[in-house]
């Protein structure tokens, strides 16, 4: 079932008098529980497409439809609510809050998503997710004391604790070595299946494509026809 | 979750430094303010300790009480009409002790009144500061313009004028010393509805103080110092909160990206600002009040608690405005920009 539709999305950046079109009318649908990988050379527009889909920047033209709602016409507060309740984010860097413990990072995400769970239930849920990402033994640690791989695991836990419908992952393994990259991708892939989350992922790493259900190749702001 | 508190708990050193700056700057302002108030008291405690009321001097005196001579009949007419009123005169002068040492004093005399010390002929009541210099009840003083001797009958608390201790003398003695029959001023206590009298100009207590040119000039300088300090301190607070916010731009961006409301980020910033400022100002108020009690006797230092509280409220307001203005950056932060900048 299609959960996310990107319809004729265009993005133009103006630098002085020069208008550069980064996305040239993208059409894409994401299916529930599927991992879709966006690949392409640097500057092909894949990260721009992901951030527009995630509501982190507006499109110059076109529509982004999530569960029948056009998020490109929504106010920033409406988009924030959708991000907080329905989307999860994993970036190249973990971007954890430096003064919160692993457990508190997840607690914050539950607060932000206005979770209706009681405190005790929240703690149980956090323990469950931390076990899934094998970080339950470090729940009282601060980000500064975690390794790169551990931080990324916590970032994944934070991205899924509120049970988002869509997970956006922008180069989630770029700052990790080969072994840790595979571990993280295995984790994302397994969680996507277990929790039925739709994942849109940008990656440079060809090895990671084996974890994707669908591979979309982009070039010069367009999706290559053969790849859709 | 109270992320403001979590951050302060984790980054104690950073917030301690910020708190120390607020504490030291506010303490400096309180101490300077205490010294300014002390000098002001030293200059005009005689007037400042009076209840709100109205001073009268002759119109011909042109706002200079030294030149005022209120005709005796006018004085009697006013005093008959206003039962609590008092006619007073103030003149700077000298007292010579038995060893010939000269001491500068402000001679004050008045008609019968609860507001001013009434003394008999040949007697004198002095400000307590002279007691601290070793003068005792029963000591005698002379004056070049006075034929008799003044016998010290007692001391009064905090009665100074023009940085000199006040010496209350009998009106007859005053008339002999200064060869005058008329008093300079009439004071009617009571704030509301000052009556007007022909030939006399009315002044409130503060207006009267402003007619004393040395007092006015001194107070203008001191007030300017205090307000400059308040403004500079407020700007310092604002700059420090601004710096703190700038350092956290990346963090704010990430928090916004995961869906934290901008209003929640403002609340976080305000909570931290109010917490740090309130604790620092409380410590500063406490320390300045201890100094107020323990300050050396000769030091003109006067810092009422109400003054420190008023200044604290101003600091809190300026800090709040400064933090809020710097917090406008939070509104401007683009989550995407923060994500692209790398790890916070």
TrEMBL record, chain A:
It is a peripheral membrane protein. The keyword Lyase does not apply. Pfam families: ABC_tran. The complex is composed of two ATP-binding proteins (HrtA), two transmembrane proteins (HrtB) and a solute-binding protein. GO terms for molecular function: ATP binding; ATP hydrolysis activity; transmembrane transporter activity. PANTHER family: HEMIN IMPORT ATP-BINDING PROTEIN HRTA-RELATED, IMPORT ATP-BINDING PROTEIN. InterPro entries: AAA+_ATPase (IPR003593), ABC_transporter-like_ATP-bd (IPR003439), ABC_transporter-like_CS (IPR017871), ABC_transpr_LolD-like (IPR015854), MacB-like_ATP-bd (IPR017911), P-loop_NTPase (IPR027417). It comes from the Bacteria. Part of the ABC transporter complex hrt involved in hemin import. Responsible for energy coupling to the transport system. This is Putative hemin import ATP-binding protein HrtA. GO terms for cellular component: membrane protein complex; plasma membrane.
Automatic annotation (TrEMBL), chain B:
Residues 224-335 form the ABC3 transporter permease C-terminal domain. Coiled coil: none annotated. It is found in: Cell membrane. It is a multi-pass membrane protein. Belongs to the ABC-4 integral membrane protein family. HrtB subfamily. The complex is composed of two ATP-binding proteins (HrtA), two transmembrane proteins (HrtB) and a solute-binding protein. This is Putative hemin transport system permease protein HrtB. It comes from the Bacteria. GO terms for cellular component: plasma membrane. The chain crosses the membrane at residues 224-244, 265-291, 303-325. Part of the ABC transporter complex hrt involved in hemin import. Responsible for the translocation of the substrate across the membrane. Keywords: Cell membrane, Membrane, Transmembrane, Transmembrane helix, Transport. The keyword Transmembrane helix applies. It comes from Neobacillus rhizophilus. InterPro entries: ABC-4/HrtB_transporter, ABC3_permease_C. Its main location: membrane.
